[in-house]
Amino acid sequence: MNQEGQTEKVFYKYSAIKDSLIENIKNHQIYFSDPANFNDIADCKFNFYFKANRQRWIREMRKLNEFRLEQLEQQARKQGFNTIDDLLNNIIDYYINEKRFQLEGDLIYSDYDKRWHSAKPVVSCFCEYGNNPLMWGLYANRHKGVCIGYKSKRINNKYKITLDSNEEAFLKVRYCEKPPSRINLFDDEAINKVHEVVRTKFKKWDYEDEYRIILTEDKQKKERAHKREDLERVIFGSKVEYCDAYRVYRVIKDYYSKKGIQINYYKIQESQGKYELKMEPINIEEFMHALQYEKM
User: Fold this and answer.
1) What is the C-alpha R_g of the chain?
2) Predicted confidence band of residue 197 (pLDDT cuts 50, 70, 90)
3) 31 - beta bridge partners?
4) What is the pLDDT of the chain when averaged over all its residues?
5) What are the residues facing 13 on neighbouring strands?
6) Which of 7, 22, 124, 283 has the most CB atoms at less than 10 Å from its CB?
7) CB contact at 8 A, 245 and 288
8) Contact yes or no for 118/195 (Cβ under 8 A)
9) At what angle do helices 284-295 and 242-255 cross, to 10 degrees?
10) CA dist., res. 89 & res. 243, Å (int)
């Protein structure tokens, strides 16, 4: 299923079986995280700065305050300025005098301040394979959890999934020895460079075979809805317990199977004589019955 040139590909998300997982399956949604909460302390560690001419600074400051331009206009008149731009020019001069901004020829430089740039990326992480032993151990409650497989389609040389009616790409993470360079957030290519940082990790994490969906918005939602039929498969861990497996089975049955959507079920097994895991297709009714019998 994961070969180059194919029109469809499955990407995998490992998880413990918990309330949030059940809720996400029920509501056919994918959760997006703030990268600041990731396991790797260096992951998505942005090194930003701002550098541009005065006109660009004024334009960006206006954009940042577009919801309160009327208030700024009143403030400008109150302080004796003819326009908002005159007021913003005065603020820039104040920051230069206070050494918060530095002049570099015709350009004005400042270290990163989140007040000047509110948008930041949110990320959802996936794996290229559903039988990665380390991922099962680390992210699926030591083989007691599940791995959900999401179907994507190849569009313009990228694998994409529809989230909230938008086509979003699965981007392959690059594993490097050195962190990415600093980014000037006033650069016209800044958003592309930010995405490059978000999809770059230290080399020692390369066992994760990771892909990411990256969204950058001012108003962030933590969840994005996918089409129900794009949840293609459920893989149970080799140590999954009946009560947990039943929760997954029940929500899939109620919110997918009863709507005519077929989900493929698998269980993880150790390969005989190899340090490998393999995905075995299962009949979900028989699997649940066997798990229940084991519990007795």
Assistant:
1) 25
2) confident
3) 223
4) 90
5) 148
6) 124
7) yes
8) no
9) 150
10) 64
281 and 264 co-located in one domain: yes
Q: Is the separation of the CB atoms in 170 and 212 below 8 Å?
A: yes
Q: What is the pLDDT of residues 142-165, one digit of tens each?
A: 999 999 999 999 999 999 999 999
Rounded Cα gap, residues 175 and 183, in angstroms: 19
- Whether 141 and 260 share a structural domain: yes
Answer whether residue 286 is part of any domain: yes
Query: 259: helix, coil or strand?
Result: helix
Please list the residues that pair with 107 across neighbouring strands: 53, 104
Phi and psi (nearest 5°) for 255? -110, -5
Q: What is the SS3 assignment for 92?
A: helix
Tell me how many domains the chain contains.
Answer: 2
**Is 242 found in the same domain as 203?**
yes
Residue 4 has pLDDT above 80, yes or no: no
DSSP state letter for 129: -
CA distance 27 to 163: 12
Using CA atoms, how far apart are residues 224 and 236, in angstroms rounded to an integer?
Answer: 24
Q: Mean pLDDT across the stretch 167-180? A: 91
Q: What backbone phi and psi angles, to 5 degrees, belong to 86?
A: -65, -40
Would you state the structure tokens that stand for residue 41, as one six-digit string?
């302390």
Instruction: Find out whether 128 and 211 touch, Cβ atoms under 8 Å.
Output: yes
| pLDDT score at 2 | 46
